[in-house]
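Field log, afternoon session.

UNIT: design team B
ACTIVITY: writing a sequence onto a fixed backbone
BACKBONE:
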């Protein structure tokens, strides 16, 4: 028999991302009320819900911008609830924003390179000048990773284009590439299709659907969610009213009622 803990989570099971009993109140409003769900390795999990359901608040709790009144957020079983957004990012939790954040004056490849952590290299200018073998190897590895991520995001043909000159759909892909550069454990995508037209959303869906990274995304565009997510968590008035595969969610009468009012 599976033993469940207080939040109904199978005891002892370690998921990549584990949100347990999270509550946030704004005065009398319960923006989140005992929200629990898990995201397994490599899964793309979407959070949906009508306006005011608590999606943004949940995203802020997971990314560390807001501390919950109750509950915990765990990454690979490690409690990150009180950990700052910067330290969460170092722990492998990366996020993108609704308003695309890229360096317009850098090329596409330059943007991804700048997102890669500079793991040592030491020796300063002297080492640069003599081109220490270890330094050269590190640089080669960084360039290889940039090429790999650009390929993953369908950006190889644009590697030398300046980011500022790109349409918003491509800039969103550059931001995604930057977030993927360091091989995050979990990628958090905040309304990834906002500002994109149908064609741009479709291209993004193809890329996100093809990732082997664990993803949590909040999104209004149902077509995008249904097409990219393995699992969906539905929020309404701060509570989880359903979790399941896209097909299960589509057929769920409680979800339909919440959306249709
Ligand atoms: N800073 C705040 N102060 C007071 N109330 C807030 C605050 N932020 C959110 N709320 C309230 O909490 C509830 C959840 O809001 P939230 O923005 O998380 O929902 P959402 O699902 O992201 O909505 P939308 O789809 O409209 O963006 C709403 O009732 C909202 O009015």
């Amino acid at each position: 028999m599976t033993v469940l803990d207080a939040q109904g989570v199978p005891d002892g099971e370690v998921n990549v991302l584990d949100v347990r009993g999270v509550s946030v109140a704004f005065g009398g409003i319960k923006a989140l009320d005992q929200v629990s769900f898990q995201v397994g390795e490599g899964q793309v999990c979407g959070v949906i819900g009508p306006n005011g359901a608590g999606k943004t608040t949940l995203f802020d709790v997971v990314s560390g911008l807001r501390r919950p009144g109750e509950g915990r957020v765990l990454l690979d079983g490690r409690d990150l609830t009180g950990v700052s957004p910067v330290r969460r990012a170092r722990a492998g939790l990366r996020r993108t924003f609704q308003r695309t954040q890229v360096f317009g004056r850098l090329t596409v490849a330059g943007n991804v390179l700048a997102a890669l952590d500079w793991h040592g290299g030491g020796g300063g200018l002297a080492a640069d000048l003599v081109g220490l073998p270890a330094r050269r190897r590190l640089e080669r590895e960084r360039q290889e990773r940039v090429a790999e991520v650009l390929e993953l995001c369908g950006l190889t043909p644009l590697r030398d284009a300046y980011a500022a000159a790109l349409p918003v759909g491509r800039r969103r892909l550059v931001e995604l590439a930057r977030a993927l550069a360091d091989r995050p454990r979990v990628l958090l995508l905040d309304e990834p299709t906002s500002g994109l037209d149908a064609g741009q959303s479709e291209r993004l869906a193809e890329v996100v659907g093809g990732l082997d990274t664990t993803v949590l995304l909040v999104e209004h565009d149902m077509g995008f969610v249904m097409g990219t997510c393995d699992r969906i968590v539905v929020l309404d008035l701060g509570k989880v009213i359903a979790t399941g595969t896209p097909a299960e969610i589509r057929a769920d009468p409680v979800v339909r009622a919440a959306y249709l009012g």
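LOG NOTE: The beta strands are 17-26, 29-39, 44-48, 70-75, 78-79, 93-96, 186-190, 214-218, 231-236, 239-244.
NEXT ACTIVITY: expression trials, pending approval
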